[in-house]
Amino acid sequence: MSSGWPVYDNETQYRQIVAYLLPGETLYAVYDCKGIGTGFVGITDRRLIFYDQGIIAKKRMMVSLPYQNILGVAVADEGMIFQSGEIIILTAFGRFAFEFRGPDRADWIYRFLLGQILAQRSPTPTAGYGR
Description:
Blueprint: E1 7-8, H1 11-18, E2 27-32, E3 38-44, E4 47-53, E5 60-66, E6 70-75, E7 86-91, E8 94-99, H2 103-120
Parallel strand pairs: 1-2
Antiparallel strand pairs: 2-3, 3-4, 4-5, 6-7, 7-8
């Protein structure tokens, strides 16, 4: 894995994600996934980008999930926190499961996505509420 930002597991996957970045978008990480379906995931300051190998539409395609469309994120709990490399992204369109090559990657992505979700949905207290 490379050091600094962005970090990535595989340079070919990194280059594929870079080709889909918008002007001014910052790439933080590109992580390889295990199993069938999803090949790799890119994390930017604006969205999650993943390479789907035919699970969604029976074609290989890059899929973008802007953070405002992510409703929640779940992490597998094997009795100890972040011992699994698996996370699930919950959206209005459905759920997307990813298994990363190590719990450290799943931990970082979980915390990053949760931070993005909560930053967008920070409620403003209403006058008189909660007294």
